[in-house]
Specification:
Number of strands: 10
Number of helices: 4
Helix content: under 10%
Distance between the termini: 28 Å
Number of domains: 1
Shape: globular
Largest sheet: 4 strands, mixed
Structural class: mainly beta
Strand order of the largest sheet: 8-3-2-10
Order of helices and strands: EHEEEEEHEEHEHE
Length: about 210
């Protein structure tokens, strides 16, 4: 049987809501949510409507598509905060759930990255349990590179996403399910060399 796919519920009210919750933020071990995602590619910048080209030396924008939240094995809501997605460039880190430490680069919700390309950016949402919630939104993460022009290097690198649950605990947030990431293009290790983010292959634009 195919799971129904509910629409996402906006959490613009979340700052007020979290203040009223009695539970401390923690990971609920009996529930699991799988975040399905793919690495779209990397680029150096884009031509904005104002005519200004955004570029950064020794950095690249790595773009991910967040495809769905699979909560079929979860018994609690998943409160997803887009800015807690990150890439960890420290392969020796033992406590990946911590928000502290060098080597972590977090997603941006700044629409200046996604709007010029014509794709929906990641946003804060609440995904219900027992179903698959379709997302189909994009996350931009600026990562450092050894090369001054970063995209060629980044497009030869396979990055993994993580989610910071410790910040929620520190803020007195809701319980989290266990979070697993499923990279749907895991076998891909190189991407086309793209300079302008407008030329990224993001599929059908909305």
């Amino acid at each position: 049987m195919t799971s129904r796919r509910p629409s996402l519920v906006s959490l613009s009210f979340i700052a007020v809501s979290l203040a009223t919750l009695g539970a401390c933020g923690y990971t609920a071990g009996s529930s699991t949510v799988k975040i399905h995602y793919s690495q779209v590619g990397a680029c150096n910048g884009y031509q904005s409507g104002s005519g200004i080209t955004t570029k950064r030396s020794n950095q690249a924008f790595v773009v991910f598509k967040i495809e769905s939240f699979d909560g079929t094995n979860s018994g609690i809501d998943f409160y997803f905060f887009a800015s807690r997605l990150y890439v960890d460039l420290n392969p020796d880190r033992e406590t990946w759930g911590s928000s502290l430490g060098a080597g972590k680069y977090f997603a941006s919700k700044d629409r200046r990255y996604t709007d010029p390309i014509g794709v929906p950016g990641v946003e804060d949402v609440k995904a219900p349990p027992k179903v698959v919630t379709q997302v189909d939104r994009f996350a931009f993460i600026a990562v450092p590179t050894k090369a001054e022009v970063g995209a060629p290097e980044a497009n030869k690198t396979s990055y993994r996403l993580f989610y910071d649950t410790v910040t929620g605990k520190e803020a007195g947030g809701p319980a989290y399910p266990q979070i697993e990431f499923v990279k749907t293009n895991e076998a891909q290790t190189t991407w086309p060399d793209i300079d302008d983010c407008l030329h990224l292959d993001v599929g059908e634009k909305k």
